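$ ./design --mode recover --in tokens.txt
reading tokens...
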């Protein structure tokens, strides 16, 4: 029996909900019963490992989803449901397998989304700022010789359908990691090209050239696809392509039969019938989509991440050979950069809801689902908060806050650096601002940070990877981020290095993860990859 919840009204603007702790939690039996239940679940999980071939692969990326983000996000969701929050279980927490991956890039302790996306999609680490190439591709003329193949490209070659879903622009680093090969992640369109980059296709052009291979494209980024000066459907933004090509119109002209749809608003998106649609491109903003908290202010309306996930899976799953789908909660990263924790945790909740949809629409017997982050952020939760305290509230309790040594209140959530510098000034001698309850409850509040920066930064910490479905147990342990790509390709039999694995061959005698006869089939060695670590460079900022 859960503890009773009570509501306190603090001033006129803030509502704080706290629940009494279940008296059973003060007994030994409660925790022994809980631990035995968890042990039984873990035992059953490892006794029934799914070791067959993955027909489908779904990767959900929480951009900047650090461990602290997961913890705070879990509490936030639980509190929205009227619980204390700490005991809540998200859809991530119920994934059967998990591990830890190291996020550093070849040249940086603290990585960006381009190098990390390349790592978990190709199995090759690279420099910060590079997409789909190894670390030797430091200029346009070196790209072709140093390309590395992504898991999505291997899936397409195997006859599978493919899709990319994001809340950022579709040309941004993480979604672009599935299809682009470029020496500079900021080349969203050709208007950013320098004289030496004429022979390198920009990211939007690379996406357009794969229009027949990628069946679902959902996110923002209309301006990068339109000729310079072309007006946007709902904002004052204009197209920016110097080559004066309208890639959206060309996409429609090339695929424009009854089974291909381009949409830019919520009503058009809702009207798309997955059963009669084979290609869908939905671009809902000139650049990034709205934060989920601001979605109702969008002129044309935007679908949620969960809604886009559902539509994508229903379209892609019509392919008997399976599909590969990447889903990114990209605005989580943007919120952290702005030092706005309430926005960030709502974007975490968007990812959690999308994962629920993905799991409900697929079968763990043939679908490998991986949920992870590309990198962390300088985001922290703790500061002595009591059980059930408002995750955005004052510490140690919003109802009975504690003062720091400077005699001022402080919040449970803080950032290590960023625009919410404690003094709200770049004057290092300025006193720390006092925080009031009504301030910390505002969605616009920027949590205080120790170091004043115009934009909060990524962290160098490891991130968690969660998995369910075929071969997901291989994610267990501490690994390089490149291990994720290897597990995906091994599980789904993608690429020449895996095509002769026992579970990839029909009638091979491979049953429930074992061969009927030992050494029945030969194993092939993995193809060598070009990789050079002897260089330096400057990354693009992931903002």
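writing sequence...
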């Amino acid at each position: 029996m859960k503890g009773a919840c009570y509501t306190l009204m603090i001033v006129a603007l803030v509502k704080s909900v706290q629940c009494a702790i279940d008296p059973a939690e003060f007994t030994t039996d409660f925790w022994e019963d809980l631990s035995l239940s968890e042990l039984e679940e873990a035992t059953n999980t490892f006794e029934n490992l799914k070791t067959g071939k993955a027909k489908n692969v779904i990767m959900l990326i929480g951009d900047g989803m650090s461990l602290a983000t997961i913890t705070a996000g879990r509490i936030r969701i639980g509190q929205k449901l009227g619980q204390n929050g700490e005991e809540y279980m998200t859809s991530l927490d119920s994934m059967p397998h998990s591990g830890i991956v190291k996020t550093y890039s070849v040249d940086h302790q603290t990585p960006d989304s381009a190098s990390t996306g390349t790592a978990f999609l190709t199995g090759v680490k690279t420099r910060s700022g590079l997409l789909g190439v190894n670390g030797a591709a430091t200029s346009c003329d070196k790209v072709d010789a140093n390309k590395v193949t992504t898991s999505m490209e291997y899936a397409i070659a195997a006859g599978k359908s493919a899709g990319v879903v994001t809340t950022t622009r579709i040309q941004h680093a993480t979604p672009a990691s599935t299809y682009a090969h470029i020496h500079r992640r900021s080349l969203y369109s050709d208007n950013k090209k320098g004289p030496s980059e004429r022979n390198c296709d920009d990211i939007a052009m690379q996406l357009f050239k794969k229009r027949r291979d990628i069946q679902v494209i959902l996110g923002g980024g209309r301006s990068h696809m339109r000729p310079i000066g072309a007006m946007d459907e709902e904002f004052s933004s204009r197209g920016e392509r110097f080559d004066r090509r309208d890639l959206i119109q060309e996409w429609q002209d090339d695929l424009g039969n009854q089974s291909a749809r381009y949409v830019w608003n919520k009503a058009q998106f809702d009207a798309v019938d997955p059963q009669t649609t084979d290609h869908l491109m939905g671009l809902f903003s000139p650049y990034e989509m709205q934060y989920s908290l601001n979605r109702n202010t969008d002129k044309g309306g935007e679908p949620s991440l969960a809604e886009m996930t559902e539509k994508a899976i229903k379209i892609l799953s019509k392919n008997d050979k399976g599909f590969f789908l990447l889903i990114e909660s990209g605005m989580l990263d943007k919120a952290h950069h702005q030092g706005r924790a309430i926005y960030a945790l709502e974007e975490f909740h968007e990812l959690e809801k999308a994962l629920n949809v993905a799991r409900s629409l697929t079968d763990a017997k043939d679908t490998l689902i991986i949920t992870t982050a590309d990198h962390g952020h300088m985001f922290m939760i703790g500061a002595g908060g009591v059980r059930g305290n408002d995750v955005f509230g004052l510490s140690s309790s919003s109802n009975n806050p504690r003062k720091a040594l400077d005699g001022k209140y402080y919040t449970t959530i803080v950032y290590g650096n960023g625009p919410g510098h404690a003094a709200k000034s770049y004057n290092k001698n300025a006193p720390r601002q006092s925080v009031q309850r009504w301030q910390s409850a505002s969605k616009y509040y920027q949590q205080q940070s120790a170091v004043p920066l115009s934009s909060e930064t990524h962290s160098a910490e490891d991130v968690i990877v969660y998995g369910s479905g075929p071969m997901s147990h291989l994610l267990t342990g501490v690994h390089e981020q490149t291990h994720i790509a290897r597990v995906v390709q091994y599980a789904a039999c993608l690429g020449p290095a895996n095509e002769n694995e026992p579970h990839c061959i029909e009638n091979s005698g491979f049953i429930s993860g074992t061969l009927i006869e030992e050494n029945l089939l030969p194993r092939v060695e993995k193809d060598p990859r070009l990789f050079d670590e002897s260089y330096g460079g400057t990354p693009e900022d992931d903002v």
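exit 0
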